[in-house]
Amino acid sequence: MAxxxxxxxxxxxxxxxxxxxPGKYVRxxxxxxxxxERVYTECPKxxxxxxQQLIRECPxxxxxxxxxxxxxxxxxxxxxxxRKEASRLQAVNRKLTAMNKLLMEENERLQKQVTQLxxxxxxxxxxxxxxxxxxxxxxxxxxxxxxNALRDASNPAGLLSxxxxxxxxxxxxxxxxAVDWVQMPGMKPGPDSIGIVAISHCTSGVAxxxxxxxxxxxxxxxxILKDRPSxxxxxxxxxxxxxxxxxxxxxxxxxxxxTYAPTTLAPARDFWTLRYTIGLEDGxxxxxxxxxSGSGGGPNATTAHQFVRAEMLPSGYLIxxxxxxxxxxxxxxxxxxxxxxxxxxxxxxxxSSRIVAxxxxxxxxxxxxxxxxxxxxxxxxxxxxxxxxxxxxxxxLSRGFNDAINGFVDDGWSLMGGDGVEDVVVATNxxxxxxxxxxxxxxFSVSGGVICAKASMLLQNVPPALLVQFLREHRSExxxxxxxxxSAASLKAGSCSFPGLRPLRFSGSQIIMALAHTVExxxxxxVVRLEGQAVTQDExxxxxxxxxxxxxxxxxxxxxxxxxxxxxxPIDELFPDDAPLLPSGFRVIPLDMKxxxxxSSRTLDLAxxxxxxxxxxxCAGDTSTNDHSLRSVLTIAFQFPYExxxxxxxxxxxxxxxxxxxxxxxxxxxxxxxSRPGLxxxxxxxxxxxxAVTLARWICQSYNYYLGMELLKSxxxxxxxLLKVLWHHQDAILxxxxxxxxxxxxxxxxxxxxxxxxxxxxxxxxxxxxxxESGRKALCSEFAKLMEQGYAYLxxxxxxxxxxxxxxxxxxxxxxxxxxxxxxxCLAFCxxxxxxx
Length: 837
What we know:
- This protein folds into 4 domains: 35-126; 156-379, START domain (Alpha-D-Glucose-1,6-Bisphosphate, Chain A, domain 4, 2-Layer Sandwich); 395-433 and 449-496 and 505-533 and 544-593 and 630-672, 2-Layer Sandwich (Alpha-D-Glucose-1,6-Bisphosphate, Chain A, domain 4), CATH 3.30.530; 729-836, 2-Layer Sandwich (Beta-Lactamase).
- It is 32% helix and 25% strand.
- The strands form 5 sheets. Strands 3, 4, 5, 6, 7, 8, 9, 10, 11, 12 and 13 form an 11-stranded mixed beta sheet that branches. Strands 14-15-16-22-21-20-19-18-17 form a 9-stranded antiparallel beta sheet, with helices on both faces. It has a 5-stranded antiparallel beta sheet with strand order 24-23-29-28-25, with helices on both faces.
């Protein structure tokens, strides 16, 4: 049992050696404790050798046994652990107390709402009994925009009247029953949640409310939230046109705000509002805001035709200080986004309170919580970057991508002529400077400008999170490495030598290095390294890697977001804080919020998306009856710098490149779309499904049956383990359909490497394309034997990869793969000891 010890700060005492007595305390002098504390600060857990060295170097510890030194450090670590745990429990207790207060207030508000509904119900019953039902039975909110809002807005006294009215209406929404609030689906309150989130039900416009605990002072929170462009990604600009004191300690501001359109299919919005900041008697701080008019008013800019004037009904922030530090924040957003101005298919984006909650209300609360944790040192980032710098990178990527999608005239964008097909829009900007700041030393500009090719498309039955996750993890399925290398070289060298760009090949490897993520993992900032290879031998020693700064949101299984996006920009390997960025990427916005989609645990390996024939019919009856009728809008935008003499060439390349990406995304979407009952034979199957396992079993069983030997050196693996062994087999194993024009439907990893292709592009390769003339003759001569005895050996030869490279192999084996009913399902090939020539 460890010897008990006590520390006494006084008393000189002698330094005679004290015998170790487990029944007594060991007293340390203040000098001894000071010496031990110094060592503990440097090394909380010193080794035995270090403790011996400590005794030798500190004569004041000479009378202490090494074992006692060891026990002292054990007890010191224990006390430190207890102190940290006590501090953590105190913080949790404060948080639970504040959360309990919030829940009690919410319960009180709900009781008032129930009472109000009971009275309204009784009134309606009485009216029905009297056969004099009131004409106005609308369930809309009783809070509406006053009709005389503009009448008094011409003088400060009128503005103060509007401000006081806005304050009263906002408080009735934040803490009262002016709006019929219902809990937002999937956002349950609790000690580990962001807070209490609610959305409006049966009210005019769209509204959302959130309240939570933030460990910052009210003035700091108000300062952060008023800077809307720093946290609201759809905010293009916010300008305060005038500001004056209200006479009661408050401040009135006239604010003009522009917001981005989320897709190329809708116009942007702008707001002309009055913002009122006032402190209340209980110490709370309020920032409330409303539109001065539903339309008209505000700046008369020449670009006003690019925007649709939206209306902000009384909204804002109520920030109340908490006992023991921190604040309770109430956020209300109430908007009328003029849904009539967008195509009918997009109107759910402008009529959903849930989307407003996700894009504005929850985003604001998350942002202040993130900054609070960074200030308190609870968030540590890699690569020595400061949190503010990393947030700026995320904002610049998002803003640059939004600028590309919207293409505002006042930013210098103008449309270019098309080629007769209007699927891709191409715009050019001859005045764009790519830098973090206008006077940045790393500002980048070219003599021509920037070209943006963009397109939007409607997706059906494709889980957005799964699609973005696939695009992130399998870049080689849709991207052209030479285009990435062109953009990277242009930004690095400042010259866009498109015609003279030397051909490169992507090795297929990408390394993702995390930079930062938000507290709840709904957004990631990372650096991606694409490993390239030079085609010629002379350039083999030169690094051809491409680096991208990438922002990814919506793929975390716990993330709840209104859009899922992947935005990236080429950067230098050692990019400075003000590195130039030219973002491109994808944005997927769900139009239907009814379905939760598929679980994010679905694998992204498309190897088993095969044609398995009758097996599909067997699984059709097992498919869930949920039809996952999820619609979403995919927006793609890619930017390319160009020299003035290369504008037409780069524009043609950009248009064709985006078309190829659209085609690749369509193929990926078909593979990721969940199965539905009644699909026809030959439908793509889900990865990891019983059909994929069945095909692996058929391949191995048929090989053993026809050739009398085992294909895999396994220890009796079955099921998914058998498929895994087949996937990692050293020889290239491929399957092609048994049709008039056989195409490849499956390849293991070695087969994909040999063909230099991807799983999605594999279906574009037919059997006759990989053999040269002699190879096709050899296969034809052995085909009769293959059909008769079930297998055939092909002698050593040469075949072609998907990129046109010659591949030699020592031997090839072909055999039939029958299905359960003995019909030929496909032909399998095994290329032994293959290598590139």
